[in-house]
Amino acid sequence: MINRRGFSKAVGLGTGAAALSLTGPHGPQTASAAPRHEPTTPISASAPAMPSAPAVATGTHTAFSRPKQIRAGLLNVGYAELGPAHGPAVICLHGWPYDIHSYVDVAPILAEAGYRVIVPYLRGHGTTRFLSARTFRNAQQSAIALDIIALMDALKIEKAVLAGFDWGSRTADIIAALWPDRCKALVSVSGYLITNLETNLKPLSPKAEHTWWYQYYFATERGRQAMEDENLRRELTRLVWETVSPTWAFDDATFERTAAAFGNPDYAAVVIHNYRWRLSLADGERRYDALEKRLAARPFIRVPTITLDAERDPFTAPGNGTSYRDRFTGAYEHRTLTGIGHNLPQEAPAAFAQAVLDADRM
Known about the structure:
Layout: E1 36-37, E2 57-58, E3 68-72, E4 75-82, E5 89-93, H1 106-112, E6 116-120, E7 129-130, H2 141-154, E8 160-164, H3 167-178, E9 183-189, H4 197-200, H5 206-211, H6 213-217, H7 221-228, H8 230-244, H9 252-259, H10 267-278, H11 289-296, E10 305-310, E11 332-337, H12 344-347, H13 349-360
Helix pairs in contact: 1-13, 2-3, 7-10
């Protein structure tokens, strides 16, 4: 999920990677679940640029083809790829507790518009694996950002539109702030999410703290054991889905497709480290200290950006984006989607895809 404060983040350096030769068809399958139509207009936005993303019902697609794999940095990354191989690149980044299926309806829209769409499993999720058993299962923000830089290097993507929510927003924000030459434009759900550990030590209001219950649960041994237990992990993550997306009528099959990604052998270790690190209850690695110091200074983001807020997401900050507006100093637009919860790309795929198209033309 997003940072407990939701308005601070971090970045990491990219490393090169050798690409594996991989094959496999692209393209999602047709959904079996009854789709729910998303709102077609945000409640806080200027008129969208042309061309417009086609209206699409949530749940129109159910799955990607078998993920590709590529060695990138510390990982063998699993990722979905749609669209023309030489099209402009868009990288869509998921959050917790989600996976690449958050973009199962978004990716075909962007591919049809001519983009090369890359949707990777973050470390600890799905088919992404660490190359070495000796590598620390670190999930601090700069390490995850470096994973995406390494993936771009491996795929020979010099610059891409970066779009994400939750962990994905944080990662995209970091790359846009520290490596703007790699980010053509940014779509960031919940705005500016770069984590500041010192700020995170300060208490919030009791009501706000209550929203983050799972973060404190993960700080305990009981929480760690729950994440390692398949049944308890499914119960916990499904409860989070229901709580943070109160208007999203997803079915069992939709949840189970994503929950399969939580069977990654490193999933519990990565998730627990991420949330404990944010509370300064777990150490990061010294090699990322310089990056974290830069991120703690709340660097400006100068690339063209559209920020999206989900009205029904309990983590959405009040003020219609005003709390983080000063962090974005380039071309900028803010949109709030009414009736939408935390998993914004999957709940409102056309609106998310439209934001990507518009940000790329700013």
